[in-house]
Amino acid sequence: MPTETQLRNPTLRSCIVAEEGYTFLSLDAVQIELKVVAYLSSDPLLIADASSQDMHLATATRIFGEGILQLSPDELKAKRYEAKQINFAVLYGAEAYKIAEMSDGSLTEEEAQELIDLYFATYTVLKVWIDAGIAQAKVNGFVRSIFGRIRPLPDITADSWKLRAKAEREVCNTLTQGTAVDIIKQAMLYLRRLFDARVRLVLQVHDEILFEVPDALLPLCVEQTKELKQAFPLYPFHTAIGKNYGELVEIKEELIET
């Protein structure tokens, strides 16, 4: 029977229910792409932000100033959202018009461009790394991830400025997403070797890995997830459990470590 939450808020996730006698165990590498770009670029400010609990809030504080922490919760949320948009805009190569469009009218194109300029004036090393990556891709005709994967970018020197711009956007995007997905794959293999063979790997959704665990093994598996901290120290995973994929409950780190 559907739960009250499912009836109230039906989603695709809420339709995915663990088999009887099993519980879902989710490992989510939160904000991994931003952390990847921080370490790849070696930008000291971005690396410092990566160690914070919330990189989007850290970015907002950097570009708008510490004073935003005194704003009302709604105002602070709005500033964090602007920072989040620009963070992902960097990864995906979005331009000012696109950021303005994504802001649902809260930013004009001119304000979005000012935000981009302010961002790169803050994270100057990141800007140098992005420009250097594009320049190298123009020489090579491809981009190579840190794990050796190659993505050809034949349009990086195309006559059409639209094709060139698209290929240039794909440089940072490929380096970041390509590295992040390989880290997730490595974590999947690591956990597969670590967990009991009766634990089922059922889904990978972007930065999240979902297992279906026999109830009797759940405490052990939750305890074993601590090892991810040693195996992937730069990329913390959040742990959540539940019978319904749409109603997972996060397990705080301090509870895992007790």
- The CATH architecture category of the domain at 4-31 and 185-256 equals 2-Layer Sandwich
Spatial order of the strands in the main sheet?
4-5-1-6-7
**Structural category:** alpha+beta
End-to-end gap: 35 Å
- What characteristic shape results from the CA principal axes? globular
Q: What portion of residues belong to β-strands?
A: 5-15%
Helix content: 40-55%
The main sheet comes to: 5 strands, antiparallel
What is the highest CATH level, the class of the domain at 4-31 and 185-256? Alpha Beta
Structure description:
The chain is α+β, with helices and mostly antiparallel strands. Among the domains are: 4-31 and 185-256, 2-Layer Sandwich (Alpha-Beta Plaits), CATH 3.30.70; 44-122, no CATH class. The protein is built from 12 helices and 7 strands. It has helices spanning 4-8, 32-41, 44-50, 55-64, 73-92, 96-102, 109-122, 124-140, 161-194, 218-224, 227-231, 253-256, and strands at 22-28, 142-144, 150-152, 200-205, 208-214, 238-242, 249-251. Strands 4-5-1-6-7 form a 5-stranded antiparallel sheet. A hairpin with a 6-residue loop joins strand 6 (238-242) and strand 7. Helix 2 (32-41) packs antiparallel against helix 3 and helix 4 crosses helix 5 (73-92). It is globular and about 60 Å long.
